[in-house]
Amino acid sequence: MALAAALALCCLACLAGSGAARADLPRLRAVPDPVKGGHIADSQGREVILRGVNVNSLGEYWQGTKNKPVLPLDRRDPGRIARIGWNTVRLIVSWSKVEPAPGNYDEKYLKRVSTWIDRFESQGVYTIVDLHQDAWGATLAARPGESCPSGYEPAFGWDGAPGWATIDNGEPHCFISARELSPAVQAAWGNFFSDSPAADGVGIQTRYVRMLSRLAREFAKDSAVAGIDIMNEPGQIGTIPASALSSFYARSVDAIRRGERKRKGFRHMIFFEPSVLWSLIGSGAPPPFTDDRGIVYSPHLYGGSIGAEGPPSETSFQTALSEAASFGGAPVVTGEWGGNPARATGEPDDYFLAHQALQDKYGIGAMLWTWKQSCGDPHAATNDPGTAPPLPPWNVFRMDCTNGGNRIVGLDQKFVKDLRRGYVRRAPGRLVRSTWDPQELKLVGEGRGAKRNQGRLEVFVPSDKVRFSPRGLRAFKGVPLGKGTLLTFRPKGGKWTLRATVNQGR
């Protein structure tokens, strides 16, 4: 039936605005399957697909220009994110902010993180707490007047580790070709994986896993926290063996579980990543490290946007799922994907449309990089960040970086149109299919094994003018979500199908 009529007949109370889409977010858990591949389920047993965006506003980045390296969040952002149709954010949290001195946790910062988690939850959006780093930390930028070996250039800093945990062995703060290929960065990683002591005599890796335990304690009872990402793109490269990364992850999983137990909370999902090289070469999982069934494999699927530009790499999706099988069939959620928004064309060979089609095909969750990117972000820096103009920001907002500026122009509407995509968000039983045709504006969803008392099917469609045909479903409700609609149905049990098509031109 036509949506307008259906809303009038079925659920006038549901039309209170985007906030009406929120119910208390149910707990999420990983469901591993070494044969068919794992998935994520909520407390009612529904399969959940996490789709969303990285939010870096709470991170601490090196500042190399007059512009601040991050743009602040404002109270409109959670609603904006929800109205695009996303149900998850990967919220960047910096070790340097959590633990500014050894063993000293910044309670005000943790409260700020919790406040924003609550604000995202108020819009029906989960949070993955991401312990973010790039090229180790901000303090490994070249010092004023520092000379570099032949073939190297002065490095600029990034984010992650505090200065007190940075042990660079006096190596040059310079790089060649890539930020990770810096003698100082490599020395810092080597000391981390060998758990070298900081000035207080405690190993820096030991400090890190204790910090993870503290974070786990903070969010132990919060169902809006989908899980904790142990570390963004760890720098296990060069002479550092893959076993060192696995050993660190084993310690981290144990620490997170201790933190949850200490507060008598529940077991959240634990997201883990391969080394930073995976983003470039599309393979290279660490050896298995735990029998914990709550882990989620989270490589970053940048094939086609980093290195050689081209179509998204379907092989990297297949590799990610294959590697996940070695971890007991853990679910796969890519913590990052993306590219230059200029590649959003709306045409069938559009990079973003093609990547999301692969997300549908392989049934994985995905977090776009990124929501807001400042003109002063190190990602936008060139080899001469103090004077050269910044590179185009990879974010959802259009930025004016001219003449040293740092002004948000507004949402990139062409890009947002690509990203506002129909998909099945929660499926009773198992999700068999969720596809969106961006040309025909048509969604097809199929599931099996649904139970009558399992909770509602939840589907996002990026329009308020929708025709739909359900089978094996009943008790329709529709809730406006910006210019989109959140459709929900109760399952009759067993198999179900849903076809939903936007009424174009009406």
Could you please describe the fold and organization of this structure?
The chain is an alpha/beta fold and 506 residues long. It has two domains: 1-27 and 422-506, Immunoglobulin-like (Sandwich), CATH 2.60.40; 32-137 and 203-378 and 412-421, Glycosidases (TIM Barrel, Alpha-Beta Barrel), CATH 3.20.20. It has helices at residues 3-10, 77-84, 95-98, 107-121, 183-193, 204-218, 242-262, 278-281, 314-325, 351-362, 413-419; strands at 28-31, 39-42, 47-48, 51-55, 88-94, 126-132, 153-154, 174-175, 225-229, 269-272, 295-297, 333-337, 365-368, 397-400, 407-411, 423-427, 430-437, 442-450, 457-461, 466-471, 473-481, 484-491, 494-502. α6 runs parallel beside α7 (242-262). The model is unreliable at 1-22 (pLDDT under 50).
Structure annotation, total helices: 11
The CATH architecture of the largest domain comes to Alpha-Beta Barrel
How much strand content do the residues show? 15-25%
- Uncertain segments are 1-22
CATH topology of the largest domain: TIM Barrel
List the helices and strands and how they pair.
Elements: H1 3-10, E1 28-31, E2 39-42, E3 47-48, E4 51-55, H2 77-84, E5 88-94, H3 95-98, H4 107-121, E6 126-132, E7 153-154, E8 174-175, H5 183-193, H6 204-218, E9 225-229, H7 242-262, E10 269-272, H8 278-281, E11 295-297, H9 314-325, E12 333-337, H10 351-362, E13 365-368, E14 397-400, E15 407-411, H11 413-419, E16 423-427, E17 430-437, E18 442-450, E19 457-461, E20 466-471, E21 473-481, E22 484-491, E23 494-502
Parallel strand pairs: 4-5, 4-13, 5-6, 6-9, 9-10, 10-11, 12-13
Antiparallel strand pairs: 1-2, 3-16, 7-8, 14-15, 16-19, 17-18, 18-23, 19-22, 20-23, 21-22
Helix pairs in contact: 6-7
